[in-house]
């Protein structure tokens, strides 16, 4: 058997491991060994290698490999056959950070958070009362202005006949 081996390998007693170059099927992603499969060249010049005529036929029918349960694409998508060695990644818990808002400092936010519900509702009612009072004052001021200086103007009769004729662009017919 010494004559069969390479001249450089004769001295070592280790066994040789033969490496076979395999391709992957463009559809099913199964390994294709030398002498098997067919090569298909798309119109854009991209060569595709199919392991079986079934894979080629399904590709030409434009079926998606992820929809067929026997393909590697489907298995990957549905998490089948994953080794137990691949441990799930642990996700860190996100911590909430309170930041100051424009016009509202961090201390104000903390004070509002620590308030009891009845204190909060009392503050809200007081703010509503203040807004209502302000609106009443504004209405009273408006009414005083209207009644005081608004009686002098006379109404002028407007001629509205044919006012918007040009906007339509001509006769009705």
Into which percentage range does the β-strand content fall?
Answer: 5-15%
Helix/strand-derived category reads mainly alpha
List low-confidence stretches.
Answer: none
> Helical region count?
5
Q: Give the overall shape.
A: elongated
Largest sheet: 2 strands, antiparallel
For the secondary structure, the number of strands is: 4
| Helical amount | 25-40%
Mean pLDDT value: 83
**Terminal Cα span:** 109 Å
SSE series: EEEEHHHHH
Strand order of the largest sheet: 1-2
Q: How is the secondary structure organized here?
A:
Blueprint (H helix, E strand, L loop, with lengths): L22 E2 L6 E2 L5 E4 L5 E4 L2 H8 L11 H6 L28 H9 L2 H33 L15 H4 L5
Antiparallel strand pairs: 1-2, 3-4
Structure, described:
The chain has 173 residues and is mainly α. It has five helices and four strands. A hairpin with a 5-residue loop joins strand 3 and strand 4. The model has no long low-confidence stretch (mean pLDDT 83).
Descriptive labels:
single chain; 173 residues; mainly alpha; two-stranded antiparallel sheet; elongated
Brief digest:
This protein has 173 residues and is mainly alpha-helical. The chain has 5 helices and 4 strands, in the order ββββααααα. The chain has helices at residues 53-60, 72-77, 106-114, 117-149, 165-168; strands spanning 23-24, 31-32, 38-41, 47-50.
